[in-house]
Structure formats: structure tokens, C-alpha cells
Amino acid sequence: MSGTMVLVRHGQSEWNKKNLFTGWRDPDLTEQGIEEAMEAGRVLAERGMRFDIAFTSVLVRAERTCQMILDGVGQSDLETIHDQALNERNYGDLAGLNKDDARAKWGEEQVHIWRRSYDVPPPGDEGESLRDTGARVWPYYMTEILPRVLRGQTVLVAAHGNSLRALVMVLDGHTTETITKLNLGTGVPMVYRLHADSTVAAKEILGDMSGAH
Q1: What average pLDDT does the structure give for the chain?
Q2: Structural domain boundaries of the chain?
Q3: Catalytic residues
Q4: What is the C-alpha separation between 159 and 47, in angstroms, rounded?
Q5: Of 57 and 207, which is predicted with more confidence?
Q6: Fewer CB within 10 A of the terminal residue: the chain, N end or C end?
Q7: Where is the active site (predicted)?
């Protein structure tokens, strides 16, 4: 068996709370989101988790979550790599819109397809489907993150609901159908231990996924 990788979706953001499509927009964490990030750090510290390196996106909600987790495990100065490859999916023209308003305008079914389908992007030239998001997440994981895990390092990845769904899809062997039903809770660490061939040896979720949305 090789190393360990911990995936964490950022704590609740201001736009999560307001029920807005966020994507590449850059709202900060709410007070609840800060508490979720701190709790993730506490839970990992209780497990005696120590990291060799951390990865996060270039969006503040993930960056702050990453830093608070590192503070919680006593590794505030750990090397942290920030890369937009781990950013949330780009919601195109939906970014900034209230999800209920979008449903009223385009219909429940269409908005659900945009939010949850594998390969249908939201409207707008920059809109990304989950497949599009995976097209930047997967190569980054293969070249930058996975080699460190296979060398036996313990790696923290703090990112977003859809960038992590794209990664979990591959790790957990989801199909294009089953991935549409997967929601990741905010601030909930998922601990993966990998075999030397990069397949998953064990997975443990450290917290409550009922708050996923």
C-alpha cells in the first residue's frame, strides 16, 4: 500500500447560503463555513493526520478551508500548491443567479440537467459540464497529486463540489449515471488510501454527509 489522500469540499460559502450558482465567482466562507473548516481540522487532528503537502484551487473559499485545516492539524506553514485546475466547474451564464429563480425561468428539469448531468454544460460560452471539469481535474491529479501519494506521502486536497465529484467519479468507479446522484457535504474529509497501482485500498468519510447540496 502506498500513501493517503484526504479530499475536502470547502466549507459553506456566502453564495451557498444564498442559494446562488457560484462556479468561478469568488465569495468567501460564511461563519458556518468557517466552523465546518475548523471542524475538519479538528477531526483530522484527532486522527493524528499529518500532511506532506496540500493542494487547493485559486478560489478563496477553498484556500481558506485548506489553511484552516492545516492550522487545525498544527501545520500552518505546510507547502500548499494553488492551481485553477482544481477550481469549481464554471457555471457560465448561471453564475450569480438564484437556483430557484433559474428553475422558474428554465424549468426544474432543465436546471437539474445543468446541475447534475455528466456531459450537458450550463448556458454560456464558458459553461462547463462535469465532463469538462474532469478534463482539467483528471490530468492534474495524474501528474501532480497521484505521484506524491504513490511515493507514500499524505496529501490534502481542498477543492469544490464538482471538481471533487469528477475526481471521486474515477476513484470510486462511478458511471455517468451514478455520479449524477452523488453530493459531497461541505467541510467533510474523505480519506483515501491507495494501492501501489493507484486503485483505492480503503475509503473513510469523517463526518456527516447529510448537509450535502
Answers
A1: 95
A2: 4-205
A3: 10, 88
A4: 21
A5: 57
A6: N
A7: 10, 88
